């Protein structure tokens, strides 16, 4: 290339003439290569490609930000709805308690009036009996209302817990979305900086392009001027060159003539007799023959070298073709790998999104599991409070024995081995009492093993066992009436019991 700091250049023979007679398009292409503007064009195309990719990424980030904003607004609305629901639930509970208390006071007043009226005559006692039956009916209806209200309260508490789980999950999701939002903001800032740098590079490239175009225009004008001067000087140059060739040919002819004359004059003076001349001539002939043989040998050697060089050239061409095909195959493989890389990158982004969704689901499940565990612990505490400390310690000791000794045939407390409708809970509790916490085992040997282990290790608590081999089902005859049903027929349990 041209440089101001290096005024010396080496140009191949014939290039100046080729450049002088070349068309404008070829000279412009050559000047662009010399000036290095092609590099700036390539960089400009790369910068424009990077700028397009940045715009696409910027649009995707904008869509993600819009989704996050919509999700946050939805979460805020759900939060307000939950807060309003909690306020209304508190109000509902207070109203239910007020209504229940009022009904209870009214019932007590009626009972007091009926007790006061029971001291009258027999007619009054009959009326009192009827009133008591009516009051009993009212009490049953009130009890049913209370049970229904309690059922609603339990359902509402479950709804509140579910909403709490959803709120915790949404809070975790909101936190994660906020983190993703911060990451997106950082990436957006980085992209903006990259875009600014690229715009600055493009601006610099455009300014350099303008400067180089100005220099190119100046060079084209100089080339045009030099071409016009060259067209003016070419006839004179051709005339002088023709004259120089004529004079050179005349000079060579004169020198050859002079040499022949000198040689003729020298040969006449060199030999005194004909034999000396013939001897010298034969010697010169022998020398020329030897020189010709050496020349022929050199020619033969050169021909061999030329053949070897041709073979090497053919090999080089074969190698070049092989390497060219390998290069093309490498380009195809590179394009294929670039496509596979893009596909893998898309799959990676999809898997990242799936992993985030799974994280959210896992967080929701963990929160629900924790709430279920808390609820189970609450019920267990209530159950322990109803059974007594000794019985509770006894059941814990039995569980430890079963776990340590890996015993089989222990089926747990009686309360864990049957179910019934909620309206039968009170009847079952009153009928069975503490016997609900008796432990069912398969036979006496299992109960003896548990007792022996507890006694040996001094485990606390009291426990009563129900061996299935000793239990017998009594054949009871129940009254045939619509006002009562057998309690055993209202229980659901395993047929083996």
List the helices and strands and how they pair.
Elements: H1 15-21, H2 24-35, H3 37-117, H4 122-270, H5 274-387, H6 389-405, E1 410-413, E2 418-419, H7 425-432, E3 439-441, H8 444-456, E4 465-467, E5 492-493
Parallel strand pairs: 3-4
Antiparallel strand pairs: 1-3, 2-5
Helix pairs in contact: 3-4, 4-5
Explained architecture:
The structure is a single chain. The chain has 497 residues and is mainly alpha-helical. The chain is built from eight helices and five strands, in the order ααααααββαβαββ. The strands form two sheets. Strands 1-3-4 form a three-stranded mixed sheet, with helices on one face. A two-stranded antiparallel ribbon has the order 2-5. Helix 3 runs antiparallel to helix 4 and helix 4 packs antiparallel against helix 5. The protein is elongated. The model has no long low-confidence stretch (mean pLDDT 78).
Radius of gyration: 57 Å
Strand count, sense and barrel status of the largest sheet are:
3 strands, mixed
Mean pLDDT: 78
By DSSP (H or I, 4+ residues per run), the number of helices equals 8
- List SSEs in N-to-C order: HHHHHHEEHEHEE
Derived structural class: mainly alpha
Give the spatial strand order of the biggest sheet: 1-3-4
Shape: elongated
Helicity range: over 70%
| Alpha-carbon distance between the two ends | 104 Å
Unreliable parts: none
Strand content: under 5%
Total E-strand runs? 5
């Amino acid at each position: 290339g041209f440089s101001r700091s290096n005024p010396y250049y080496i140009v191949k023979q014939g290039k100046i003439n080729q450049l002088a007679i070349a068309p404008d398009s070829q000279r412009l292409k050559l000047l662009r290569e010399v000036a290095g503007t092609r590099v700036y064009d390539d960089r400009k195309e790369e910068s424009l490609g990077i700028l397009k990719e940045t715009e696409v990424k910027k649009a995707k980030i904008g869509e993600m930000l819009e989704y996050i904003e919509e999700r946050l607004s939805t979460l805020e609305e759900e939060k307000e709805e939950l807060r309003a629901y909690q306020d209304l639930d508190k109000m509902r509970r207070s109203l239910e308690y007020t209504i229940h208390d009022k009904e209870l006071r009214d019932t007590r007043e009626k009972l007091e009036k009926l007790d006061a009226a029971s001291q009258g005559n027999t007619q009054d006692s009959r009326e009192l009996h009827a009133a008591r039956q009516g009051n009993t009916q009212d009490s049953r209806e009130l009890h049913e209302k209370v049970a229904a209200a309690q059922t609603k309260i339990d359902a509402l508490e479950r709804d509140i817990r579910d909403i709490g789980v959803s709120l915790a999950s949404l809070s975790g999701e909101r936190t994660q979305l906020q983190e993703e939002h911060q990451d997106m903001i950082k990436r957006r800032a980085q992209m903006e900086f990259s875009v600014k740098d690229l715009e600055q590079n493009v601006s610099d490239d455009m300014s350099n392009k303008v400067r180089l175009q100005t220099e190119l225009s100046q060079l084209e004008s100089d080339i045009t001027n030099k071409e016009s001067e060259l067209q003016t000087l070419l006839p004179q140059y051709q005339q002088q060159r023709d004259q120089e060739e004529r004079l050179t040919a005349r000079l060579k002819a004169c020198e050859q003539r002079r040499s022949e004359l000198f040689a003729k004059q020298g040969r006449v003076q060199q030999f005194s007799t004909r034999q000396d001349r013939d001897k010298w001539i034969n010697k010169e002939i022998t020398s020329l023959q030897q020189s010709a043989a050496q020349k022929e040998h050199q020619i033969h050697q050169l021909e061999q070298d030329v053949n070897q060089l041709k073979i090497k050239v053919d090999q080089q061409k074969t190698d070049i073709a092989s390497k060219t095909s390998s290069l093309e195959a490498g380009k195809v493989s590179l394009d294929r790998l670039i496509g596979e890389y893009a596909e893998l990158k898309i799959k990676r982004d999809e898997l990242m999104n799936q992993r985030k969704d799974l994280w959210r689901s896992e967080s929701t499940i963990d929160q629900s599991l924790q709430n279920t565990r808390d609820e189970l612990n609450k019920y267990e505490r209530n159950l322990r409070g109803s059974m007594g400390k000794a019985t509770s310690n006894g059941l814990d000791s039995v569980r430890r024995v079963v776990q340590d000794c890996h015993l089989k045939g222990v089926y747990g407390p009686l309360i864990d081995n049957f179910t019934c409708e909620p309206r039968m809970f009170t009847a079952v509790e009153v009928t069975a009492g503490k016997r609900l916490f008796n432990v069912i085992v398969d036979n006496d040997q299992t109960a003896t093993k548990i007792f022996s282990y507890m006694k040996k290790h001094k485990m606390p608590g009291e426990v009563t066992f129900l061996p299935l081999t000793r239990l017998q089902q009594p054949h009871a005859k129940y009254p045939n009436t619509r006002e009562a049903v057998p309690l055993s027929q209202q229980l659901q349990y395993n047929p083996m019991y």
